Amino acid sequence: FPSLRLLYLLDEINEPLITLKTIGHQWYWSYEYSDFMNIEFDSYMIPTNDLNLNNFRLLDVDNRIILPMNSQIRILVTAADVIHSWTIPALGVKIDGTPGRLNQTNFFMNRPGLFYGQCSEICGANHSFMPIVIESIPTNFFIKWY
């Protein structure tokens, strides 16, 4: 019984600062900042021909997720077509997006920087071309960005 209680408490999210809704599509991600009005965008992988010298091939996206550091972040994940898996290894986050279902988890970033991930579900031929990039910035820069 103690382990079941602990699992339940780990999944409980107490007053997150920001909620980010993520929707997996074939072969891109859509994001909605639920706490703010009219902040929605799609995030596609940058084609190899369009990369700059400082971009990573098959990992960089045209629209990064911008989140404040030192804040509790709740992420809601779903999918529009097939099962996807939103994974950021450096943050220890892996959550499946299933059509018709809304899954949630949380994370906390304690340093600024870029965090890279990909779809880790075999959701079709191009699932490895669904990169995820989170840019963690100080809160005052996040407020200016918003």
UniProtKB/TrEMBL annotation:
Gene Ontology MF terms in the entry: copper ion binding; cytochrome-c oxidase activity
EC id: 7.1.1.9
Membrane-crossing residue ranges in chain numbering: none
Cellular component GO terms, alphabetical: mitochondrial inner membrane
Cofactor(s) demanded: Cu cation
Cited InterPro entries: CcO_II, CcO_II-like_C, CcO_II_C, Copper_CuA, Cupredoxin, Cyt_c_oxidase_su2_TM_sf
Membrane association type: Multi-pass membrane protein
Signal peptide: none
Keyword Transmembrane helix part of the UniProt annotation: yes
Keywords: Copper, Electron transport, Magnesium, Membrane, Metal-binding, Mitochondrion, Mitochondrion inner membrane, Respiratory chain, Translocase, Transmembrane, Transmembrane helix, Transport
Principal location: mitochondrion
Similarity comment: family membership: Belongs to the cytochrome c oxidase subunit 2 family.
Quaternary structure note: Component of the cytochrome c oxidase (complex IV, CIV), a multisubunit enzyme composed of a catalytic core of 3 subunits and several supernumerary subunits. The complex exists as a monomer or a dimer and forms supercomplexes (SCs) in the inner mitochondrial membrane with ubiquinol-cytochrome c oxidoreductase (cytochrome b-c1 complex, complex III, CIII).
Full protein name: Cytochrome c oxidase subunit 2
Species annotation: Teleopsis dalmanni (Malaysian stalk-eyed fly)
